[in-house]
């Protein structure tokens, strides 16, 4: 796993093959296949370790929960090795159904806590009942992801706080 | 160029080498290098053809300009070969400075018309003078890109119109 994580970080997904992992780690391929029967299982396991899951916070208010989650996600995007590996996973997902599944699972891990806090806020009346949960998640995560992978502008606290304020301001 | 575009679409950026383009097209490598002195020049040219630039519209209102641009971008994301090649460009940009330049130029082509219409609306008083242009672009393009490459949910007209309404509604 250590060798897999190194290869992922250095070269993206294209650099991870069972052959290369065996060479780098000195572990026999048969042993690797005993733990991860297919390459995509090894990659899913490695990516899950890179990305570190968020639990849904429960600060007592929707604004507090949202600030906690957005801050955590911005931090992850600024620093985590996961952020530099993600584009290669998305690229592979365009062509390989196994990796499309890996991509969906990682994506779901990141969006699920948003789903939890937004649904709770709808239940408690902090958000209106007609709230489109999936659209709100896109409005929150979209600008973060846009800055990290597309415009490559800084993900500073002012920007992150601004997204939250704008989404909260219009509810 | 036709061979390059085929290879890009089939395999992403990793599938495009001057060797492979020469083999597929039957054109000598020396001839290819005469037109594109380095691989990244060939790739930039191909990506530019794939993505089709948008001119900034001028419909007479900011809402109209925005609807035209967002509709065009959603259409591009739903159909263009560019959309399936983009993740491999972003991936390469994480590690290769030449391709980071290619990525920035394509990114700028897509964001520039938004910059034009937002700045014009600030000038005409349709948007307040303190408008953060870059943050507004992130709020508009972020959710579109999020759906195309991350959550892979449908980019239907209701979703696209909703982004625009929410951004307009709070100005």
Automatic annotation (TrEMBL), chains A, B:
Keywords assigned by UniProt, alphabetized: DNA-binding, Transcription, Transcription regulation
Residue ranges of DNA binding: 17-36
Segments crossing the lipid bilayer: none
Annotated protein name in UniProt: Transcriptional regulator, TetR family
Span of domain HTH tetR-type: 1-54
UniProt entry tagged with the keyword Signal: no
GO molecular function terms noted in the UniProt entry: DNA-binding transcription factor activity; transcription cis-regulatory region binding
């Amino acid at each position: 796993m250590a060798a897999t994580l190194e290869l992922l970080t250095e070269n993206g997904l294209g650099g991870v093959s069972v052959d290369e992992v065996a060479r780098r780690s000195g572990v026999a391929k048969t042993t690797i296949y005993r733990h991860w029967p297919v390459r995509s299982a090894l990659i899913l396991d490695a990516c899950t370790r890179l990305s570190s899951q968020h639990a849904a916070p429960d600060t007592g208010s929707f604004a507090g929960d949202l600030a906690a989650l957005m801050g955590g996600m911005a931090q992850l995007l600024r620093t985590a090795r996961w952020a530099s590996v993600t584009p290669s996973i998305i690229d592979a997902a365009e062509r390989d159904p196994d990796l499309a599944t890996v991509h969906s699972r990682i994506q779901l891990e990141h969006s699920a806590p948003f789903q939890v806090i937004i649904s709770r806020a709808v239940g408690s009346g902090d958000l209106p009942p007609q709230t489109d949960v999936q659209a709100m998640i896109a409005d929150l995560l979209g600008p973060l992801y846009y800055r990290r992978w597309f415009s490559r502008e800084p993900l500073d606290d002012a920007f992150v706080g601004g997204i939250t304020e704008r989404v909260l301001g219009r509810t």
